[in-house]
Write a structure and sequence with these properties.
Two copies of one chain form a homodimer. By secondary structure, chain A is an alpha/beta fold. Chain A is built from twelve helices and seven strands. Bound molecules: adenosine-5'-triphosphate (2 copies) and magnesium ion (MG) (2 copies).
Chain lengths: ~270, ~270
């Protein structure tokens, strides 16, 4: 306990944040105790669950460098069972600060694995929390923040936009995961690839799907996430699409995906 | 000579590479001598103009560190008047390598401003080239690669996807441009904001447009780029959409945008 799942892809705009938020929400909805970690200086995951910018420090930067007990960086969200360690603008300087440090790849692993004694006074319930899952949202790069997440991870989820540039970057990402597994974190496993922004009417989407399933087989989830405008509307309301519009095709797709992921988790 | 335009936005997947390639192509089509620089380790701009992965070194990494005369890193593309300095996987290590260097923000400025004596033997024409424009594609981050580009730049173009997260990141980007202008590069100007992946049927697109025009006025170009599937098909053919499907709404939008940008350039 807890199991750490990292959502990563160096290609930008492929649905990392959207997948992190909606997967975490769906898992919380079925009774799992979930902690999200926003490791992207953009802070989109923090915005997507309604954390006001002024409420974001201490956050993931402080946890990464062990500045505060983890519990002080945890915020409750409006979603029952889902907490978050938010990202603030201090995180933008983290990569440069990590470069000269010894064991710079292990900072997050060391601090995230330390049991959060209590959820901070002002933040939450005040009693020790045993999370079932920690889900980490990464920035669009393979820099020291994403490397720290991969070193701390049990499993990696890769959202893959059904576009050519995204497909091209996939083999580079899989090689990087391999390198981390061999040199830093032998437990690291590719949990699966999620096809996102899928458009059935568009030949490119089908081509990318065919190619990825041929290349990776059942590492690619059966459930794909369609392009759905309700998904892109939800962040401006500070809510996951699962809450913003439960009946939308986007929300329903994330529910089916979460069920498939939890079935695979149960089989481990 | 030459004028250096940087295409930047830390938000991922907003159309930086697509804008760089199609703007550069449109400018070359009206007779400007253009050099693209791919400063993203993903190498999408290099792919988008058909540079094979094996043909990418020496590339932008070598130019950044002054390892080779710039001319040796320049490749001709299939588009008349358009050359590129491609990105290879060596660029992925550049940011970490720059951190301990003095004047780390000025590496690109120093090497890019040195006149390329000749386009390398094996690469191109062999005679000195006076480029009118150098257009730099940046990675989705505000790290040392993007900072090097902004320090070297005369002007910055900001592609803005018509989505909430992209809008949220805009003020942070504009603040960063201001900081670079004040501390490193007094010539730096925001050339303009380009609305990308615009969908007229979608209220979110119109809301983002209204908000950005209210906030930035005529810094936002009149011509917006619609979401158009032909744009996302072009990269798999190694061609800009202007060449892949000249009559498409995407290609026509980039032609109108290029005309608007060149009109503003002429007025400077
Ligand atoms: N299935 C979908 N349908 C429609 N829009 C989507 C979908 N998934 C994500 N989006 C929208 O597309 C944009 C990119 O998604 P998101 O921000 O989650 O990607 P990301 O990989 O986290 O981006 P970054 O690389 O910047 O971190 C967002 O504006 C989001 O609201
Ligand atoms: N107007 C458009 N209509 C449809 N698809 C588009 C449009 N512009 C870009 N795309 C596609 O959307 C994806 C993202 O665009 P692009 O790669 O140019 O963005 P980027 O900002 O360079 O991404 P990154 O942050 O990863 O560098 C690409 O697959 C591209 O082909
Ligand atoms: Mg994100
Ligand atoms: Mg790009």
């Amino acid at each position: 306990k807890p199991r750490i799942i990292v959502v990563a892809n160096q290609k930008g705009g492929v649905g990392k944040t959207t997948t992190t938020i909606n997967l975490a929400t769906a898992m919380a909805a079925v009774g799992k105790r979930v902690l999200m970690v926003d490791l992207d200086p953009q802070g989109n995951a923090s915005t997507g669950v309604g954390i006001a910018p002024a409420q974001r420090t201490p956050g993931s930067y402080a946890v990464l460098f062990g500045d505060v007990p983890m519990a002080q960086a945890i915020r409750q969200t409006a979603i029952p069972g889902l907490d978050i360690i938010p990202a603030a603008s201090d995180l933008a300087g983290a990569e440069i600060e990590l470069v000269p440090e010894a064991n710079r790849e292990y900072f997050l692993n060391t601090n995230l694995r330390a049991r959060p004694q209590t959820v901070g006074e002002g933040q939450g319930s005040g009693s020790p929390v045993d999370y079932d899952y920690i889900i980490i949202d990464c920035p669009p790069a393979l820099g020291l923040l994403t490397l720290n997440a991969l070193v701390a991870a049990d499993a990696v989820l890769v959202p893959l936009q059904c576009e050519f540039y995204a497909l091209e970057g996939l083999s580079h990402l899989l090689r990087t995961i391999d390198i981390i597994k061999r040199n830093y974190n032998p437990h690291l496993e590719l949990q699966g690839v999620i096809l996102t922004m899928y458009d059935r009417r568009n030949a490119l989407s089908r081509q990318v799907e065919d190619e990825v399933r041929a290349y990776l087989g059942d590492k690619v989830y059966q459930n794909v996430i369609p392009r759905n405008v309700r998904i892109s509307e939800a962040p401006s309301h500070g809510k996951p699409v699962l809450i913003y519009d439960f009946r939308s095709t986007g929300a329903q797709a994330y529910i089916l995906l979460a069920r498939e992921i939890l079935q695979r988790e149960a089989a481990l």
